[in-house]
Write a structure and sequence with these properties.
- It is a single chain.
- The protein is mainly alpha-helical.
- It has one domain: Hexokinase, domain 1 (3-Layer(aba) Sandwich), CATH 3.40.367.20.
- 56% of the residues lie in helices and 4% in strands.
- The chain is globular, with a radius of gyration of 18 Å.
- The two termini are 21 Å apart.
């Protein structure tokens, strides 16, 4: 907040159960549940999750007994950004839509005025994210869309954000002791 500075809420919210919207997302959730026993947000919204989203949307998971070859997430992102791989673009677009939906849920749960996306993947495709359904899905919360309109969204792009956070914590600690 403006009087006390940033307030970071540490959680393990990524491990809550994923709530799929629509048939494609339900297919993704079914596949991940068949592989891991349950499907959490983090299972979908990580590098390996992107590879699974890609596999499901390519139709590679129809036979649950067959060995599925997953593509490397970095290759999926590169192919999507290059524009020559329709399946990769579709997977990355779905990933962005799910990220928007989950981020909107998290903002509502925590009463956030700002959402900061962290992690190694998203900074690699910020332009794609901005032109995706991310914001539409972030706001798709019925009567609470108006609240979410005022929530600012940022993405950490610094290569060592933990060091910045530690420096800020040290500085805040020094102010308290002074």
């Amino acid at each position: 907040d403006e009087t006390q500075g940033w307030h970071v809420v540490e959680t393990e919210g990524g491990h809550v159960t994923y709530a799929p919207i629509g048939e494609e997302e339900q297919a993704i959730a079914r596949w991940l549940t068949s592989q891991f026993g349950r499907c959490s947000n983090e299972r979908v919204l990580c590098g390996a999750g992107l590879a699974h989203v890609d596999a499901v949307l390519r139709g590679a998971t129809h036979d649950l007994d067959a060995k599925v070859v997953l593509r490397d997430p970095a290759d999926i992102v590169a192919a999507a950004l290059a524009g020559h791989d329709v399946a990769a673009r579709r997977a990355l677009a779905r990933f962005c839509a799910v990220l928007g939906s989950v981020a909107g849920d998290a903002a509502l749960i925590h009463g956030a005025r700002t959402v900061v996306i962290a992690g190694g993947m998203v900074p690699r495709f910020l332009g794609f994210l901005r032109s995706s359904a991310f914001r539409e899905k972030f706001l798709a919360k019925g009567r609470f869309a108006a609240y979410l309109e005022n929530v600012s969204i940022h993405c950490i792009t610094h290569p060592q954000p933990g060091l910045l956070g530690a420096a800020m914590a040290l500085r805040a600690s020094a102010k308290v002791k002074a």
